[in-house]
Amino acid sequence: MTTTDAATAYRIGMITVDCRDARALSTFWSQATGAPVVEDYGEYIALGTTPRLAFQQVPDPTPGKNRLHLDGGGGDRLAAVARLRELGATERETHAMEGFAWTIMEDPEGNVFCVGDDVEHP
């Protein structure tokens, strides 16, 4: 096994989502995260998140199940889920295990993401 030093370590600087409508999807995620648009080239729009989240308009987004999805949260999961639904997301299902719960959602283009938070122990 080899070691990785700072000069050769792979760093994730941006997550890019292929989509049908970069403007609409970046607007949804900008409102969802509170992050501003920092680059706007029409068919390619990036938000000021860390790492940067970008939306690239393509003629034929990959069909089928996402193999990569975003996991996030930010406090009150139920309130966040309700707010995201108001912005245009779809709630799919909720799961819980000891000490943690999460809700699986889809953004307006059907990209899966999860909203999680800690739950109280009985």
From TrEMBL:
User: CDD domains under this entry?
Assistant: VOC
Q: What is this protein called?
A: Glyoxalase
Where does the record place the Glyoxalase-like domain?
14-115
Highest taxon above the source species: Bacteria
- Spell out the Pfam families in the cross-references: Glyoxalase_6
Query: Known SUPFAM superfamilies for this protein?
Result: Glyoxalase/Bleomycin resistance protein/Dihydroxybiphenyl dioxygenase (SSF54593)
**Species the sequence originates in:** Brachybacterium phenoliresistens
